[in-house]
Task: structure prediction
Amino acid sequence: MAVGSASERASAQERETAAFEFGARTGYAVPLGAAEANEGDNIDTLAQGQVPIWLDAGVRLARDYFVGVDASYGVGVLAPFLRSTCDTDAAYGTKTHCSARDVRLGLEFIYHPRVRSAFEPWLGAGLGWEWLSVTDSANFQGANPSVTRDYDGPELFLLQGGVDYMLRRGLGVGLFVAVSADMYRSASLSCADTCNTFAVGSRKVDGSTTHEWLFGGARVTFMP
Result:
């Protein structure tokens, strides 16, 4: 009885213990929807995809619940039209550099149902903020014009799920999928050097429309 009682107390203590947890992910994401309702431009006319570097940090409560923050920096894959424009400039002797990036920052909650297996499934939800930036810079005849289009707005929700394989206690690797619904609230056009013919400035995004990012990839989690 004493052994059983000690085992039960240890199990109860384990369930009540909170531990820090960190995670890292990468993979690929594709966009859906429009950046602006009134402009009629789908978001894939700016970036047709991204490769995210995604970090998670927070606390695992009672082994079942993770509460924390997530942040990602996505290296954007330029839309074909923008990429071809840069290629055309390069063909005429202009040194060009075109790039896109997508940054996300938010809060997340993840539930880990208990299973008697090394494979641990999980489901999560979150919300946050997103920033998308597309830049076209050049170097031609001593001038260095650079034009940047920026969008930002709330990430209305993030739904995600996956399966981790526990290599050992506190260390897991696995696969994940996620979808985020976002709405840009402001847009800006900035210009550096000799490109004052552009209408630069910031503005509110007219109309309200959502766009989505569909993520898939691999992740590593660690509880020290």
